[in-house]
Specification:
The complex is a heterotetramer, with two copies of chain A and two copies of chain B. By secondary structure, chain A is an alpha/beta fold. Chain A folds into three domains: about 1-90, Translation factors (Elongation Factor Tu (Ef-tu), domain 3), CATH 2.40.30; about 95-200, Rossmann fold (3-Layer(aba) Sandwich); about 205-240, Dihydroorotate dehydrogenase B (pyrk subunit), domain 3. Chain A is about 15% helix and about 35% strand. Chain A has four helices and 16 strands. A seven-stranded antiparallel beta sheet of chain A has the order 4-3-7-1-2-6-5. The longest helix of chain A has 13 residues, at about 110-125. Chain A is globular, with a radius of gyration of 17 Å. In chain A, about 50% of the residues are buried. Chain B is an alpha/beta fold. Chain B contains ten helices and 16 strands. Chain B has helices spanning about 30, 80-90, 105-120, 140, 145-160, 175-185, 220-235, 250-260, 265-270, 275-290, and strands at about 5-10, 10-15, 15-20, 40, 60-65, 65-70, 95-100, 120-130, 165, 190, 195-200, 200, 205, 215, 240-245, 260-265. In chain B, strands 4-3-16-15-10-9-8-7 form an eight-stranded parallel beta sheet. Chain B has a four-stranded antiparallel beta sheet with strand order 5-6-14-11, with no helix packed on it. In chain B, α7 (about 220-235) runs parallel beside α8. The interface of B and C includes residues 197 and 220 of B. Bound molecules: flavin-adenine dinucleotide (FAD) (2 copies), flavin mononucleotide (2 copies) and FE2/S2 (inorganic) cluster (2 copies). The site of one flavin-adenine dinucleotide has 21 residues of chain A, from β4, β6 and α1.
């Protein structure tokens, strides 16, 4: 964890209510699957957002304007400085991938951004994998071009069939695969049930985001674990469902 | 040089700033950010005898001037805490800590207090009779004077270290509870714990907390805390650790002028992990500006 | 078209937004800024039988998320108010108002309630048993169920218009007081009045209020108000006017979902004289966005 | 009263902790002795400040940075827009000046600014008057040049004698004069006692500033009057001392 001041470089509207913001500054050491916690002027608690991409001195986030906080964030001008905690959470761990196993990255809605970061990372390690992204409709598709630009075979499912396969991400067969999944709880659960093993990124309402308040704690096979500090990524073995 | 030291029933703190229970873990996460030895002390997460997961998720809700929590005393159990968390504290903190002790029966409170009393890491025991997030026990001990008297009396007899009773603000009159604690042998009082509050999501019409109601903390409760600390200061002779919404050095002084011998900083740590550090660094500067040479002299000086 | 109307024991309001007692005078100052007929209604300043200057100055203190007041029921006396202020209301407001009635004895409460009952301007009487700023009377009626029952019962018998009892949040358990009011014949309840708080000037070490403690209102008390409105909603069958820290249309919906049939907006008026107007203009837009066609249907829908 | 958005044109430092700020915009109808009530971002209550000068589309205020609110105000950048209630209070009433009476304007410290506005107004009506301004020391003197620029005979007293007459404003004889006074309570009281009659500008902690909360109400010979709406200027006849 690092507390740092980052500057908004740009904010781009991806869909009606999803924005991509690039933050610049001393970002610290980062990892795919980690998140940052942003203090937005006028709001008490920080807003946790996954890292969608990063380099030495920038972090890209992609977020939906769910409520007042993310809405305010999306309206901040370029050049605005933000108080941010970076490098939060454990992140995805590619060293845990079993040998000779096919890998699948499964993302749903706003669970897609951290998988982009992971995809880039795996790609850099010459690890092969499939990507399955699920959305409600074609209007809500995000980051598909970015995955394609990485030269990754990406399957898209939409609930209403307006793009790609009609249905949910579970329509794609992942039985023998090691999955990295991020998305809404029902999706994670469904993927968990049909997967061989893998890593699942959780969400929780957080107060601190760095492990001291127990706000986000859940029951796991290893006892009480904090989504913010012991997660947000949990292995299939840890999860109780 | 401003003298910031303060005395909690024999436990001398280099400054009055203590990180509050439930908002500082066991100090480890903060110790990786700054040298936490600058703190007067810190108060550990409330412990029960058996491990507790606490209440269902979600258990955090934001408010305009603070937050609600319905953690419900998540902890690994008193024995585990004493053997692991308390034992590890010396690796990053070289002063005595305050152990926040909970329970669901008088017997359990006593057992847990003894465990804390026997831990070398602990300098003072804070008896939490005011957790709004657990149904049985906790708060029910903190709202009736006779029940409270018996509990405090029994715990006091079982331990050697100073005993502070942490009172709830969710009462018609806090003074009789403060007095009952004093008469039962409490060495001091801690106040306030959280106010009971609720938030509802207007989209889903569901309470944000799975538990519906939770404890309200942060800036929004400060005026209530100042009033209660002052009321209690005027009713008892034992020292008070004042808390509730403190986020600046000025808040610390205001709370001490109201009657607090030391203060705890809670929610502010969650929003800015450097909150205590900033407050402690600002304190001597602010004291100097106000002509305060010995901070402890301002305790209860409100008129 | 969203139906915003709501029903307070027969008094139909075109929308649930009522300006709160003590923060809207008798409406005249606001009527020179905008047409106050857009309001559901407004509640007049608390009246006692004899004129009262109230507490010494200063009697306002700022807080980070609200304010303290120790006005102490400044008013020209019930008779004068009925003959002058109430009589003049028709010149700028064409709906019935809510009269906030105080007293220092049951007899006085009854006398004042009758004066309000007989005034054509008044549509509903709000019995203020929760003013934290007067020593005798007021609050002492609002914290004991038996005393409260007797008072409400006596007042109810003496008047014809709907009687709402305004409860204090400064109690361990508000539910028995709500129930006692209902059983005594109250047609509805108003809550919450202010929380008791204090602020101290760290330069002078003097309380900011001459009276030391005062009533804390504004955004900071909203979570407490939502919780209490919901607790009371689950305990009684009579309608509730919910208030405490409301400053936006979203706050209005949250309070109604918690259990309020109508709401009052207080402190927000003092900070922005157009606060009620803005809220009322935003309400239908917000309802539309959330798919609410009949606002009264959301009352108490929290789950 | 008018609620308006005013823009900061300039802020000038007059002494260590006193600033002069010019606000521009649709200021409404104004009068000497009235005040404005300024919403400062981050503070709950508005800050009441007297009008020191005004014209059709600007208001000048002079204020001391007593606490956080006025400090924040003094640090706001030019161009910043402020939510302001203008034209509050009754103001000084020159029509009440008895015939054939000498007039004296008596100001102390931060009570001086509204008297500058009054002086300008009286001057415009060709009414003659003296001005006595009291300060703690020469370092705290404000607006003296402005009074001089109006061509007004201005006596200055300082408590420490570092400028002008040593002592308080009451050192100057006002016995037969009709005074317009503004300053700290003890000064007002002292002037009240030795004056023949006049108008005294009060201060009070205010919540609303426009007459609805009774926060500022005081006892007068005419009953309970609100400093914000029935004052801040009270005549000698109204005051109970
Ligand atoms: C580890 C983690 C990573 C996340 N990554 C992303 C991401 O990459 N992109 C994205 O769009 N969203 C992400 N979220 C969800 C995001 O944090 C919320 O959408 C956001 O906090 C909502 O804030 P708001 O002010 O708009 O909503 P409001 O509802 O007004 O917020 C009120 C409070 O509730 C919290 N809250 C509301 N919804 C959620 C939620 N779903 N999860 C956690 N807290 C919530 C807020 O943080 C705040 O404390 C992530 C959440 C977590 C825990
Ligand atoms: C009618 C009127 C006219 C005024 N004109 C001027 C002027 O021209 N120049 C000037 O320097 N000052 C003037 N004041 C005083 C000025 O309002 C306060 O100095 C200012 O509000 C302090 O705000 P703060 O945030 O810096 O102080 P803080 O102490 O942090 O303020 C906290 C709260 O106390 C109130 N407060 C603090 N001091 C006073 C005070 N003396 N009077 C009223 N409220 C106070 C604030 O408004 C705020 O609500 C006037 C006051 C009134 C009532
Ligand atoms: C997330 C959280 C957890 C808490 N856990 C405890 C606890 O275990 N024991 C306890 O006595 N108080 C607990 N408290 C209460 C605080 O110690 C403190 O009394 C309260 O929050 C008021 O101070 P603040 O406004 O500075 O946070 C908790 C508060 C928060 C916000
Ligand atoms: C300045 C002031 C004066 C008040 N006077 C009264 C009063 O006379 N009678 C009463 O019942 N409540 C009075 N109240 C309480 C309000 O009506 C309301 O219950 C409380 O302020 C909470 O609402 P709010 O947070 O929206 O202000 C007063 C509040 C304020 C701030
Ligand atoms: S959010 Fe505080 S421990 Fe996870
Ligand atoms: S400040 Fe509200 S009436 Fe004067």
């Amino acid at each position: 964890m690092k507390k740092t001041l980052l500057t908004i470089k740009s904010t781009l509207k991806l869909t009606d209510d999803v924005f991509k913001t690039i933050l610049e500054g001393d970002v610290g050491t980062l990892k795919a699957g980690q998140f940052i916690d942003i203090k937005i002027e006028g709001f008490t608690l920080r807003r946790p957002i996954s890292i969608c991409d990063f380099d030495k001195n920038s972090i890209t986030i992609v977020y939906k304007t769910i409520g007042e906080g993310t809405l305010a964030l999306s309206n901040l001008p370029n050049g605005q400085r933000l108080d941010v905690l970076t490098g939060l959470g454990n992140g995805f761990d590619s060293t845990k991938i079993p040998a000779n196993t096919k890998i699948s990255l499964v993302g749903g809605g706003l669970g897609v951004p951290p998988l982009y970061c992971l995809a880039k990372h795996l790609k850099g390690q010459n690890i092969n994998f499939d990507v399955i992204l699920g959305f409600n409709s074609d209007k809500e598709i995000i980051l598909l071009n970015d995955f394609n630009a990485l030269g990754i075979n990406t399957v898209v499912t939409t609930a209403d069939g307006s793009y790609g396969m009609k249905g949910f991400v579970t329509a794609v067969d992942n039985k023998d695969k090691y999955v990295f999944a991020c998305g809404p709880m029902p999706m994670l659960k469904a993927v968990y049930k049909v997967s061989n093993g893998g890593q699942f990124s959780f969400e929780a309402r957080m107060a601190c985001g760095f492990g001291v308040c127990q706000g986000c704690t859940i029951q796991t096979t290893q006892g009480f674990l904090r989504v913010c500090a012991d997660g947000p990524v949990f292995t299939k073995e840890q999860i109780i469902w | 040089m401003v003298n910031l030291s303060t005395n909690l029933s024999g436990l001398i703190l280099t400054n009055p700033v203590i990180a509050a229970s439930g908002t500082f873990g066991f100090g480890k996460e903060f110790s990786s950010l700054f040298d936490i030895n600058i703190l007067g002390s810190f108060c550990t997460k409330g412990m029960t005898y058996s491990p507790r997961l606490g209440n269902p998720q979600p258990r955090i809700a934001e408010c305009k001037a603070g937050m609600l929590n319905s953690i419900g005393l998540t902890n690994n159990g008193a024995k585990h805490i004493a053997e692991h968390e308390f034992l590890a504290i010396k690796n990053y903190f070289n002063k005595p800590v305050i152990a926040n002790v909970c329970g669901f029966s008088a017997e359990e409170y006593i057992k847990n207090a003894i465990i804390a009393d026997e831990s070398p890491a602990v300098g003072l025991i804070e008896l939490n009779v005011s957790c709004p997030n657990v149904k049985q026990g906790g708060i029910s001990f903190g709202t009736q004077t006779t029940v409270l008297f018996k509990l405090v009396n029994a715990v006091k007899k079982a331990i050697k270290k100073p005993l502070y009773v942490k009172l709830s603000p969710n009462v018609t009159d806090i003074k009789p509870l403060a007095k009952a604690s004093e008469e039962a042998g409490a060495d001091g009082l801690s106040l306030i714990n959280t106010l009971l509050g609720a938030r509802i999501d207007i989209n889903t019409r569901k309470f944000i907390l799975a538990n519906k109601y939770g404890g309200y903390s942060g800036k929004g409760i400060f005026p209530v805390a100042v009033r209660m600390v002052n009321e209690v200061y005027n009713s008892v002779k034992i020292p008070i650790i004042g808390m509730g919404g403190i986020s600046t050095a000025a808040d610390v002084l205001e709370m001490m002028i109201a009657g607090a011998t030391a203060v705890q900083v809670g929610t502010a740590n969650l929003i800015d992990p450097f909150a205590c550090k900033k407050i402690i660094e600002k304190l001597p500067i602010l004291c100097k500006k106000l002509g305060i040479k010995t901070l402890s002299e301002i305790v209860g000086s409100a008129r």
